[in-house]
Amino acid sequence: MNKYISRSIESVLKKAAAEFPAVVLTGPRQSGKTTVLKHVFSDSYQYVSVEPPDIRIAASEDPRGFLAMYPPPLIIDEIQNVPELLPYIKEIIDNNRSRTGQYLLTGSQNLLLVEKVTESLAGRAAMLHLFPLSRRETENLPQKPFPWESLNKESIKEKKSLHDIWASFLRGGYPELNVNLERDISLWHASYVQTYLERDIRGLRQIGDLSQFQSFIRALAARSAQLVNFSDIARDLGIAVNTVKSWLSLLEATFQVIVLRPYHVNIGKRLVKSPKVYFSDVGTLCYLTGLRDPEHAASGPMGGKIMETAVLSEIVRTLTHRGIDPQIYFWRTSTGNEVDFIVESEGRLIPIEVKKTSTPRPAMAKSIKTFLNDFGDQTSGGYVVNLGDLRLPLGSNVTSLPFIEL
After folding, report:
1. CB-CB contact of 170 with 292 (8 Å)
2. For the whole model, what pTM was predicted?
3. Rounded Cα distance, 226 and 176, in Å
């Protein structure tokens, strides 16, 4: 039996099920949605997946009869396959509106699911998202606070070799790869990307040429952590700019990428307006850019982007798994000042720079200091996240933070 890795979202799920008639848990395929629901609720809930074709047909042809056969409390897996069930679930909920936790629904497609849930279960369902494992979850510290949070006490001293850190980047956060450490990482990611294309993308929208869409994904991976130039991508692939935008929104809706927008406040400096795109799983990014071993990943031209992706992924996953909608931006002015990430936390702005070095220097904090000067009373210090193993001051209100302590 595979070991279970505790998830930060468990307490949030319990709270939501105690307060709402339904809970909808979305997230990328294979992120562990079914596993966590079964782990937390299996003692008191029936479980049914509507992904197998025969069950899907039975549920869509006779929704009322299907739900009568599976009364609440019930976990329904991959609900996006039978959205016809949602109005009937609403009817059952409305017949006993005060009863909480009647249905727990999972789905791999945010786009259509949110639309259907909003139509049918508005005010009746809590919407939560589950990404693959955060680093704190794989380290069995699922509730560990961030260094800048008021709950944070003395940092837990961890030691990890650079080889192990880069190997974890290649692996990524998908539970199957972190539970079964013997799995062939490249083979798994290749299969995942293919399954994603065949099932989620084909099911969501008429793409037409799947091989061209796959080329688009790889082109985007090569431009990860950069400002997105839609015209460049369109020209390189021979497709329309609107197609690029449409496909990007598909990737975002299916949780494969995170689109980061610039932090905009009028402080007399012209800020860039183009977004940046990051893959939501650093292992997927490494696979798509052809990286197969830690040494090449660390020393190659993608090294800095991989490190940035790992940092962003950890922040997004940790906040999302607490039931919080992450407010994260980047900051860049026309004069060249740039901070990788601006995180809104506890009413403050936290500027974070990411450096692929084990030897942080005060000069690396220059852009953070500029940001702190501009937004002084709204900030509470900044961090330069790096591959060293010591927390060090890099100037007034700027701390060098080891990645393993993030």
Report:
1. yes
2. 0.94
3. 30
